[in-house]
From TrEMBL:
Annotated GO biological process: DNA-templated transcription initiation
Keywords: DNA-binding, Sigma factor, Transcription, Transcription regulation
Job description of the protein: Sigma factors are initiation factors that promote the attachment of RNA polymerase to specific initiation sites and are then released.
Designated name of the protein: RNA polymerase sigma factor
Gene3D superfamilies the record matches: RNA Polymerase Primary Sigma Factor, Winged helix-like DNA-binding domain superfamily/Winged helix DNA-binding domain
Cross-referenced SUPFAM superfamilies: Sigma2 domain of RNA polymerase sigma factors (SSF88946), Sigma3 and sigma4 domains of RNA polymerase sigma factors (SSF88659)
GO MF: DNA binding; sigma factor activity
InterPro entries: RNA_pol_sigma-70_dom, RNA_pol_sigma70, RNA_pol_sigma70_r1_2, RNA_pol_sigma70_r2, RNA_pol_sigma70_r3, RNA_pol_sigma70_r4, RNA_pol_sigma_r2, RNA_pol_sigma_r3/r4-like
PANTHER family (UniProt xref): RNA POLYMERASE SIGMA FACTOR RPO (PTHR30603), RNA POLYMERASE SIGMA FACTOR RPOS (PTHR30603:SF67)
């Protein structure tokens, strides 16, 4: 770990050292308020569980990411847990949140260790072939053969075989990764023929490279772009909805979006 990362970790740990855990009745109280959209209650639940994130993150050390990155990813899982928590179901928030925190950290570790760089046109073709295979899945008792995909799309069989081999050989398979809605990465990729912001971004580099560059932006900028353009596990959201999620005004979210796109474009051009 670099000296800068070590200093950042120490500073963060000192900052949260005295945060108080909520009692069971307090979790119910603040959980109910948070479920109704109370931003302050949501913040209380997040801040009171930051040390839980640190404890879980420590168990993932020496797996490729520095402590501060593990904590940041875990905090995203904690935020998700607060969004999903139902205090009426009778279990402690820490028990519920642990699942989301671990999932977020594991996903970050997987993305870090399973990096692939494929040209965007190959990713586009793989996405097309895999989507076709899924549509034909009910027609065949087992795996859909390349010949069937080629016939359906009027493509050369060897071209289909080659791209399907790319999908099998890449450690990060487009069809093997699923999000919490059980969607594969292939299903989260927008059609690159669309004249959309995400199409512009994906054309700048391959999807995974985009994710790498996106992860280097400040976290508010990451969240705005992911939620605005439906990147990764997020569905496209309006500026207003993103503002409500982050506790920011619509105008501030719009400003962050412009800043983030400028930073991302600069990074992609340098890459």
């Amino acid at each position: 770990m670099s000296k800068e990362a070590l200093d950042a970790t120490k500073t963060y740990l000192l900052a949260i050292a005295n945060t108080r855990l909520l009692k069971a009745d307090e979790e119910i109280y603040y959980g109910r308020l948070a479920k109704k959209g109370d931003h302050n209650a949501r913040q209380v639940m997040i801040e009171s569980n930051l040390r839980l994130v640190v404890n879980i993150a420590r168990r993932a050390l020496n797996r490729g990411l520095p402590m501060i990155d593990l904590v940041e990813e875990g905090n995203l899982g904690l935020i998700r847990a607060v969004e999903k928590f139902d205090p009426e179901r009778g279990f402690r928030f820490s028990t519920y949140a642990t699942h989301w925190i671990r999932q977020s950290i594991e996903r970050a570790l997987m993305n870090h260790s399973r990096t692939v760089r494929l040209p965007v046109h190959i990713i586009k073709q793989m996405s097309l072939y895999l989507r076709c295979a899924r549509e034909l899945n009910n027609t065949f008792p087992k795996e859909v053969p390349p010949e069937a995909i080629a016939e359906q799309l009027s493509e050369p069989v060897e071209k289909v075989r080659q791209h399907l081999r790319f999908n099998e050989l890449t450690v990060f398979s487009l069809d093997s990764y699923t999000d919490e809605d059980n969607r594969s990465l292939q299903e989260t990729l927008p059609d690159l023929s669309d004249n959309t912001p995400q199409a512009y971004l994906l054309k700048s580099e391959c999807y995974v490279s985009l994710e790498q560059q996106l992860s280097q932006l400040p976290h508010p900028h990451q969240e705005v772009l992911r939620r605005r353009f439906g990147l990764g596990r997020h569905a496209p959201s309006s500026l207003k909805d993103i503002g409500q999620y982050l506790g920011l005004s619509r105008q501030r979210v719009s400003q962050i979006q412009r800043e983030a796109l400028a930073l991302l474009k600069e990074r992609l051009e340098k890459d």
